Amino acid sequence: MKARLFINRALDADRDFEESAFWAASALEMLGKSALSRVNPALIANAVDDDGASLLVASGLIDASKRFVTVQAKTVWSRCARAFRPFNGKEAGLIAEGRNEYIHGARVGFDAIPESAWWPRYWAQAEILLSHVERTVGDFVGPSREGAVETYLAANREHRQKRLEAALESARVGLRLFRTDNMSGRRLAEWNLFTLQQWEYSQPTECPACESELGEFGGEEVLDSRTEHYVDDDDFWTSVSVTLTVATAAFQCANCHLVIDDYELLQIVEGVPLEFEAEGDPADYEDYEEYNNE
């Protein structure tokens, strides 16, 4: 309800962009807290500043009418990014940063991103959180304003596609210049210094820019694990295998030096999944020793 109040203040026709953006950024934070609290209220309870009282309220152990303190916006963005993919915590952080500068800083605060781009990027994040509170854009802003929001969402999808196409074309041009010995100066130096990022988990794939087999995607964050135990006919333990589900952090290509580490672009890159399976080390998991009876 608080998020709805703030977003409708933001969309009032008599407000300038900076004030509208302030209320919209506040609404996004409330929406993030709403989505997290639906999973578990403890996810938004401040566990430090009030000696754990908010955690006790969240758990239902003490009266909910007592003062309840929530976590800061940066914590909300971090937790939403991990829990509600493809929510972009960095993008939300930029939105919150503008709000903080608007209140506490010397600058206006919302001048880093043009208004025409700010709203499409804002609604791309808000729509994800709305789905996790089982609400639609129309539920959030009202039917009379739903069409305008859909226009912003369409603009963001188009902008995202153009950014991807520009990144692919830049990689193709760079490879062509290098192969024809027409690359010089700073760009050649950067090309020669290029190194692949080393991930704990990775998989090869065809590069969407140069179509070589030297592309790969990888990541570090394990989203889930599955342990399987194999036994022989006499019911003696023989082996354990662990299959991990890993979040894709980026794509890179050793041939054309294409790097895509923006999560919004990763969502639309052909041949690059947002998560993938990898083999884990059984020794890293608690139940390994239980089965290691040799």
UniProtKB/TrEMBL annotation:
Organism domain of life: Bacteria
Protein name: Uncharacterized protein
